[in-house]
Structures are given as structure tokens and as C-alpha cells.
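Q: Entry one of two.
A:
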Amino acid sequence: MNIRPATPADAETIARQRDAMFLDMGEDAAKLARVHDSSLAWHRRALASGLYTGFLAERDGEVASDEVVGGAGLLWQDLPPNPDTPHHTRAYVMNVYVRPDQRGKGLARLLLERVLAECAAREVTLISLHASEAGRPLYEKLGFRPTNEMKLKLSPP
């Protein structure tokens, strides 16, 4: 496997993987279809601006998008320092996905190790994510721990 940085040209692949990830977690396909174009536009913009850094795993280093078998990304957050970090940049891990036929081979771990190496290279010391039940054991093995975060979803006007 070859793990390479994603470019804005990879936005469609990342958006498709993101849709597949949410489907695997039980989300409604119709709801995903409604936000796909917005998600694609966001990924193009975020990749181009550096707000998002993605990594894609390719079988045998091939560059065709159908040979991309997994991916993971980082959303860079600009937040004030707090008791857990003196730095203002934090990382949010997202879009971790491996194609079903490639699962169980350690690819998700390789992708996450690449993500964590990018954080270390940027001296980012506080990293968060939301874990699916399937992903939780791997994240815990890598040192992630549950926090006390809460969430409120407002209804649109």
C-alpha cells in the first residue's frame, strides 16, 4: 500500500468515502445524497486552503481513484490554548474509511499513524475525533480516550 497526501483533485473520492463511512454507521442514504454536493464543495475548498489535510491509501501505488482503498483526514482548528495544550492549533481526525474488501489488514492503523505523524510534524499536541463503534478499539489502542464533550443539534429555521 502507498499512502499519499490528498489534493483538491481527490475531493470526489474523499466525499464518496465519507458517504460510504456514514452508510456503514447506519445513516440514511437519502440524507447523504442531499448533502453530497455540499460535502464535495467543502472538501475541495478545505483541501485547497489547507484547512483540511487528507491522506489516501492506494493499492500498489496506483493513482486511479478506483484504486484508492482508504483514507483519513485532519481538520485543523484554531482555538485558544487551554489547560491541555499551550498551542492554538488542534487537530480533528475525520473521514477515516477503508473499503470493506481491504479491512482487517491494518490499513486503518497505517492511515491513523500517518495522521498522527502529520500532527507531530506540525507540533499539534491535542487531537480529537468522534469514534464509530467499529473504530473505537483502534483509537483506544492508539491512546485516544473518551471525553466529556456534549452536543446540541438545533433545528433549521
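Q: Entry two of two.
A:
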Amino acid sequence: MSISRGLFLIAMLFSMGWAGSGQAATKPTSASLTGTWHNAQGKTLTFRANGTVIYHGKRYHFAVSSGGYIQLKGKHGDLTIPFKLAGGRLTLTEGGETTVYRRKR
């Protein structure tokens, strides 16, 4: 009977997203990117709630994939950019270069 309880407890913890840190892991969504971000060089990105982004001065429609990519589509072409969102930082990797942005308040 105690083995059953132990397995039940483990199953409950994993179903709640427990990964040893006490917090559930969350995947970034389009909504979590909404706002204006800036980097150390003074460049900005603005993700809007309507699904558009201003990236390198050009307007695109964007979507966030579950694999950690931002997909941009627009009249300027399509781009797929790997990203990470953690600790208030948005890290984009494009052309082998990594750029870190922070959200403007």
C-alpha cells in the first residue's frame, strides 16, 4: 500500500509540473513577449498584442513555436529566430550571433 501512495505522489508532482524547483515550468507564448524590448546597443523590438512585431524597423506578423522559435512573416520575407525567455531577458540568436534584450518599463 505504501508503494502505491509513493507512486501516486510522484505522479501528482509531475502532473503539476514539479521539476525539483518548486515551480512549474512554463513555455513562452506570444503574450509573454508583448511589449517593447531594448538591447545594450539601443535597438528595440516591439511585440504587440495583435500579433505584429517591429523587428529591424520592419513590421511582421509573429508566432511563438513550442520548440523555442519566433516565426516572423511579412512582405519583407519570412524568418525563424531561435529564442529564450528567462529572468526578464529575451535572447535571440540570428546568423550565429546572440543578442539579449530587456523589457522596457
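A: Comment on entry two: The beta strands are 35-39, 44-47, 52-55, 58-65, 69-74, 77-86, 89-94, 97-103. The CA atoms of residues 17 and 97 lie 32 Å apart.
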